[in-house]
Amino acid sequence: MIIKQYTLGPIENNNYLVVDETTKDAALIDATGMSDELVKDVENLNCNVRYILLTHGHFDHITGVQELKEYFGAKVLMNELDMDWVKNINLVLPQFDISPVEIPVIDEFINDGDKIKIGGLIFKVITTPGHTKGGVCYLIENVLFSGDTLFRDCVGRCDLPGGNYKDIQKSIKEKLFTLPEDTIVYPGHGAPTSIGYEKEFNKEI
Length: 205
Description:
Blueprint: E1 2-8, E2 13-19, E3 25-29, H1 36-45, E4 48-53, H2 59-62, H3 65-72, E5 75-78, H4 83-87, H5 89-92, E6 108-109, E7 115-118, E8 121-127, E9 136-140, E10 143-147, E11 150-151, E12 154-155, H6 165-176, E13 184-187, E14 193-194, H7 195-201
Parallel strand pairs: 3-4, 4-5, 5-6, 10-13
Antiparallel strand pairs: 1-2, 2-3, 7-8, 8-9, 9-10, 11-12, 13-14
């Protein structure tokens, strides 16, 4: 498995390209925007981006969805509970001096426990409400893509519509902290961490 990270946009979002080295099938986790580096990596790795997997519906994770979907011919997957954020994206963008975008088209809705096969890789969906109602994480082998649920030393903000601090604590304690401690965590912002580190040092949980 190859993992490439791209930090993009005004809020410095982490987007991740995950590639099966054998089949060259790939997924993009979150889609802040088009990136020359991403395009070059896809070309150099000779991979096929089959899916765009969204961790949640906040604007900074989805502004590039439609452009990237059309460029790569990828299917877009997300939890249905965050569709209000998708439909209303252009009400939020002016606050950040971002031009309106085409409303992203979501091809399939995902739920807790779903498994998405991309080449030889199996992406397990873990629903983690709290940052948003429809927030999800993706687990592949010993790697967790946590979106804005879990960060190094902190958790996602819960003060926006649909956010709930008790819910995010429950999601992390009951779903993420039950994973092996050596599970690597790639968050939606900031540096990677691990489940073991967060269980020991994260004071917000």
